[in-house]
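Kindly go through the following sequence and its backbone structure tokens. Advise at your convenience whether the structure tokens fit the sequence:

___
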Amino acid sequence: MSARTRETILAIVATDTTFVRARYGEGEAFIGKCLHCGGRLVIDLDGTALSRATIEHILPRAHGGTDALENLGLACARCNSEKGVRHDSRATFDGRLAEVVHALVAKRMERWRPPSDELRARHERYLLRRSGGTTASTKETRRAKKRR
């Protein structure tokens, strides 16, 4: 698992109220719940998944979803895989996909813990680097300059 993936997992943990730091085995870990089924997920303090936790894109990337923290959650591998097989491959305008996404957004916002300013800034810098230095606002600024 890459350092960036572990950092993203820790950012999700920091913004999900179901995750708490607790004793686990000989040490400590973050223990929380799957976004779908509520099953127990365990994340090491360095961001390594100790259970079958996976990063869930609530609105799938194939349908315009991003890596913004509000669109990310943690799910057990089984639930994430089932959502991918059953819903992510559907057409964007599919009613069932819209229902699933709406329910997951509501659940994520119910569990939402605002990130610290430092965490938000670090994640936004990552998103900017990943996009090659362009964000929606950067692209709009470029379009506006071309129109002048």
Observations:
- The longest strand covers residues 27-33.
- The two ends are 46 Å apart (CA to CA).
